[in-house]
Write a structure and sequence with these properties.
The complex is a heterodimer of chains A (203) and B (317).
Chain A (H helix, E strand, L loop, with lengths): L14 H4 L2 H17 L5 H18 L3 H10 L2 H10 L6 H24 L2 H10 L4 H31 L5 H32 L4
Helix pairs in contact in A: 2-6, 3-6, 5-6, 7-8, 8-9
Chain B lengths: L9 H25 L5 H14 L4 E2 L5 E2 L4 H8 L1 H19 L7 H26 L3 H29 L5 H33 L13 H21 L1 H4 L5 H9 L2 H10 L1 H4 L3 H39 L4
Antiparallel strand pairs in B: 1-2
Classes of the chains: A mainly alpha (203), B mainly alpha (317).
Chain lengths: 203, 317
């Protein structure tokens, strides 16, 4: 589960961790916009942005192997497009540009998300006037994401320990009842959360 | 189908961002008016559910596995407006927390997976429900809508990539549509199985009561429909015109090909494509049309199979 949700929960402190979230998000957003809009011929920008990100990565003391793995895990789309463009020789140049751009943007987001607590990111979203209902939804989702993922994993393990290899059809039936049960539990939990929220004076 | 940053250029990002922001705004406004306060936490929990459900892997042949995408399932369980908000929340968390899907591409991803997959799928679900009433019809509807919505979202994704100049349409369309016609079968099947599982254990969670005509929701549906149609018109229609000899045959028959001759001579490259690839686009479109008929029949059989079996066994009360 941890490898899937792969996040670096380090409590290590660094100048990057301590920087205000709004500054980090603002700079990251700026880098991403310029990177996406910049034509690939302007190599100066891409080299500069890459150097900046690498120095931030070093400053933040995140393990470099962890960062490299995260970038590789998230690149299947780049590979897919590469395979597609292999049929079209003229498009190969475009692909290199796209790969460079997406790697820079990916590294930016990974650095921000691993040095900023999610609650601070939500706080910034609230400051830039994202509607409250959407923020409540995202906050609740983030709170119960790991709870439900664990619950799904427990149900899956319970199922696996009770049924030895039977046909694939049987597996699909049981797995979908696991997912269905997950929805039932999620909506029951939502009811309890609502009662708890009301008990604490939510309006 | 999460598009990363760098695959979408500025104009596509701006247009998809505008469309998605409008759709999410509409959905939020609607939920505020319609949804009882008691159900507000359910949105967040449904988003967490969707995320967790996407991590349950279903074995497919040869050691590979697939998972639920779930826009249609959530739309069938909670309604289209809630589905847009739930999928948007999932995509925002995936983008900022797990760097899955780009920041600039967030609008495109919300449009494909929230608006087209969720709301577009809900349209198809309601249409099939109207044609085939009863619980059996609803299972058929979920399965068929799951397949259609997956394919539509994939085609729109291909259109956006082509419009951004990342992948030519003649490659992106057959590849994306072809692969997702297969993935969609799994999606439809899982959605239907999960739907039946919920119906069996907690039938009161399934909004059967609001399935008959809801006049107050018509405005909402028309709004989403317009947005979805606008997006399809922008991302897919320009490419549809260059489908194998459609326009050119008409032009030839009507005798005005000499009028379009000048631009073709001045820019011969864009009009030239390998005949094989040209054929692939047409073939994919044909396969899609045929495939939707076949899948519709399969979905109907699935509905029959799953629901009769339930009647025979009688679920625990």
């Amino acid at each position: 589960m941890d490898s899937l949700l792969g996040h670096h929960h380090s409590h290590s402190e660094s100048p990057i961790h301590r920087m205000p979230a709004i500054v980090k998000l603002g700079v990251a957003f700026g880098i991403i916009i310029v990177t996406v809009l910049m034509p690939i011929e302007q190599t100066g920008w891409f080299v500069g942005a890459g150097a900046l990100l690498v120095s931030v990565a070093l400053l933040s003391r995140l393990p470099l192997l962890f960062l490299a793995k995260r970038i590789l895990v998230l690149s299947p789309f780049v590979l897919g497009v590469a395979v597609l463009n292999a049929f079209e020789p003229s498009a190969r140049g475009t692909w290199v540009g796209v790969a460079v751009k997406s790697a820079i943007c990916l590294l930016t987001v990974i650095l921000v998300s691993n040095t900023t607590p999610f609650s601070k990111i939500l706080h910034v979203l609230k400051m830039v006037r994202v509607p409250g209902l959407l923020i409540t939804t995202i906050a609740l989702m983030h709170r119960y994401l790991f709870v439900l993922a664990d619950e799904a994993e427990r149900m899956r393990r319970a199922r696996a320990s009770r049924t030895f290899a039977r046909g694939r059809r049987f597996q699909w039936r049981t797995l979908s009842s696991v997912v269905g049960q997950l929805f039932v539990r999620a909506s029951e939990r939502a009811e309890r959360i609502y009662d708890a929220m009301c008990a604490r004076g939510w309006k | 189908m999460h598009i990363p940053d760098g695959f979408i250029d500025g104009k596509t990002a701006a247009v998809t961002g505008g469309l998605s922001a409008t759709a999410v705004g509409l959905a939020l406004r609607h939920i505020k008016h319609e949804l009882p306060a008691r159900r507000v936490p359910l949105l967040g929990l449904a988003a967490a559910f969707l995320f967790a459900a996407q991590m349950v892997n279903f074995p497919v042949a040869g050691g590979t596995s697939g998972h639920l995408v779930g826009g249609v399932l959530v739309a069938a369980l909670l309604g289209p407006g809630a589905a847009v908000v739930v999928v948007t929340a999932v995509l925002i968390v995936q983008c900022f927390l797990f760097a899955d899907g780009g920041v600039m591409a967030l609008g495109a991803n919300i449009f494909n997976m929230g608006v087209l997959d969720g709301v577009g799928g809900y349209f198809i679900y309601r249409l099939v429900c109207a044609a085939l009433p009863g619980p059996r019809g609803r299972v058929t509807a979920v399965a068929f809508a799951g397949w259609c919505a997956t394919v539509i979202a994939a085609i729109s994704c291909a259109g956006q990539l082509a419009w951004s100049g990342t992948v030519p349409w003649s490659l992106a369309f057959p590849a994306m549509a072809g692969v997702h016609m297969l993935i969609g079968i799994g999606e439809g099947l899982i959605s239907a199985l999960v739907y039946v599982a919920i119906q069996r254990t907690r039938p009161e969670l399934i909004p059967e009561s609001n399935l008959p005509a809801q006049p107050q929701k018509r405005g909402e549906l028309i709004g989403y429909g317009l947005l979805a149609a606008l997006g399809v018109a922008i991302f897919i229609a320009p490419f549809a015109c260059s489908w194998p000899d459609g326009l050119e045959a008409v032009a030839g028959r009507l005798g005005f090909e000499h009028r379009v001759a000048a631009p073709i001579i001045s820019a011969p490259a864009p009009n030239y494509q390998m005949p094989g690839i040209h054929w692939a686009v047409g073939a994919t479109a044909m396969a899609g049309a045929l495939g939707s008929l076949v899948v519709c029949a399969l979905a109907w059989l699935l509905g029959r199979f799953l629901v009769t079996e339930e009647k025979g066994k009688l679920p625990p009360a």
